[in-house]
Amino acid sequence: MIKPIFSLISHRSVKALQYRTIITTTKPNVWVVTNGGIESTLQAATIGKHLGNLTVKTIVSTPLLRLFPLVIQKYIVDWGLKRKKENGLKKLPWYLEGNDDQLDGPLPDYVVCSGDDAVPGCLQVIKSFPSKHPFSVFLGFTNLPFIHFDQVVIPKYEANVKMAKLGPLAQQKNCIVTEAPIVDSSLWPMSPKSKKVYTDLLHHLSFQNNSDLTVIVIGGHTSQCRWYTENALNLVDNMKRMVTQLDTNLLVIYTERTTPLIKTTIQKNINKSIPDHATRVVTWDSTISGLNGLEKMEAYDNLIQQASRVVLTADLDYITAHATMKSIYYIWWIM
Residue 117: which of 47, 65, 168, 162 has the closest Cα? Predict the structure, then answer.
């Protein structure tokens, strides 16, 4: 238990966590708060499961709250907490979305968060239990001052790009810059719901004469990686080449970053240009699969494990790092 904790914390926090570890006789409870997407849940759950008993929560800001900068969102959360008459978190306030049953379970000793949309929910959880004072860890870069978290963990490539604008403030005591994203090579066990999605997707493909499978994971437009509908058309053309020249089956996965326009463009052109698409190509829209964040991650992790190769759009940096830890022969980046 002590070893993975110490790999996360700064020197300043060692004594406090040593004391907590000594007086704790049971395994700590860890809440992983994410936006429910595959990428954010993967990296947060990887840390969370090494800290203690893992519970994944999908708590996100409402579309109205997301209209404001993240700093203003933080002040709205503080305002909502001041209006509360009791401690605890029995029901989500108006500025957060998620099922109220996401709040069930033992109180957290650690809160691990990933994704900007999940930051207000993370702050709400941390400050709702002042007597417990859970230790908070944020993964990645956020436009909120790092002082609002006990620890921020960010990979070096992301820190070099996004923290340069902070100038002298780029070196912060509660920030750990890792050489690469933190990934785990072990396979996530599947729940009944995630196993059903996994089985149904593979059942639609034709493996009688060929067991070769290519998984294509599609992200979306970001400020660092701009791609549009014409890039989606090029992607479908590459899919056709994979089917006809590599003689492979395709599993296309849409992530939370994929816009409806990109999905429609890709699906329309798959039906029009790829031969035998009904038995050679299957698509999975992870945003409407009816699974929660943990179940999506379980299904995705096991599908990747079955692939002969993985094709990713270049905006999916953490998912690329995750794919390299699996039994993968090739990683292709499509710009």
Answer: 65
